[in-house]
Amino acid sequence: MARKVMTGNSATAYGALVSGVEVVSAYPITPQTTVVEKIAEFVSDGSFKGKYICVESEHSALASCISASQTGVRTFTATSSQGLLLMHEMVHWAANTRSPVGLVNVNRAVGPPWSIWADHTDAIAQRDTGALNIFVESAQEILDMVIQGYKVCEDPDVLLPFIINADAFFLSHTFEPVDVPDAKKVQEWLGKYEAPYPLDPDDPHGYGSLTFPHQWYMELRYNIKRAMDRSAELIPKVSKEFAKLFGRDHGGNVEEYRTKDAEVALVAMGTMVSTARDVVDKMRDEGHKVGLVKVRSFRPFPQKELRDIAERIPVLGVADRCYTYGQEGPLSTEARAAVYTLKDRPVIKNYVIGVGGRDIHVNVLRKVFLDIEKVKEKGLDKESVWVGLKRPPDEPPEVM
Amino acid sequence: MAKEKKETRGRGDWKTYADMPPGPISMKSTRGVSLTGGWRTVKPVIHLDECIKCMTCWKFCPDVSIVVRKDGYPRVDYVYCKGCGICANECPKECIEMVLEDTPVTEEPEGEAVAEGKEA
Fold it and tell me: pTM of the entire structure?
């Protein structure tokens, strides 16, 4: 195992390399570009021996990966924002053809106006595709989750694509020490990908042809539902297996931090979790009983885990780095839905924060935690608030 | 790549979601099931007396519904032709006419089929 100082984008490229990916097809887009460049470097120095397909768009990049995956090889692509949105049709296609393509999405705000900074809108737009949607908070976690993504998604009972979401710049361009596991050891663990019905000229089948309403469409969709449910069981299991072999356990579908005796907790995804850890530590030192819940898997959504947490903690704040217009932050909506069946439902307040890469400073998160405590004392004032918004002088900020 | 043949139950032989392969795979030809000719509102009629056997219609047909007979002339396979009109649009002799589905036409004799795999 080699420990190197590298960016999240390099860690992404190394993740694909050590996983023994055989086909890569990607189209450069800021802030993902250096992933593509790093893999090109692997091609030129001979360390990547697979096929690198240059294409004219993200739509074609994912289409190439899907076709390659259907022949029975491990495939990888990476993108951001508008690129992922252009891929969107193909993300459905990857799931519907049950192709376990690996995809790293460097979360970037959606334009116009152009913004290249962190925002989760691009990822959340893939919610209904049937792709696993995983959020990470460090370069190491990207690398480890690329490997684990293949382990989970190439399982014969899963066979779905996965998207690892890494916040723009906070991860993509920030240098961190990263352990790169031994490629041979990783590939021994992953095994060879076996497509159930590989595209083979000697054994032809029709792939994705027409099915009538009375035939099999509903059943094919139900089987994707079953596969996604299976992935929810596998993610924590695979994480444990990975920890045994490589010494790191990032947690299952959720990770709890100092929630044991917490009276309130913040639920969040992505890099803001790292900042929130520091805030929780500091506030704990001051006697505040605050905790943190990191949602790692947005799809499959950790309903069971969140219900369990909600039974113990009566007040939850849910932070969203994006917004669903006409509703509220998407993570908050999902969290509310998950806990709805509980007899004693917790109070949930949604905080829309860091949209378009606006800095989520420790002081900002501290105010959010104090606001959640206020909700516990005085009850819920508003269901969803925008934190750090520039407001007219006569309008007080919603989180003081 | 797994070369050994898996147990393949044909599409239509499945009883429930649990019998099916994971992806949308057709185990055998669906030609006998999807008779798409019924989708037409207009149909192509080839005026063979003007046809020069250039095979442009055969080449352009997206549904493999132009078949070439032993006499070398193209015919329309009305069981599958959806009536898209591409053949009529592409015909350099303009001898393919799109007519309403219910227009009675004098069908040209079918002609003897060439052996399978040798069409055109």
Answer: 0.88
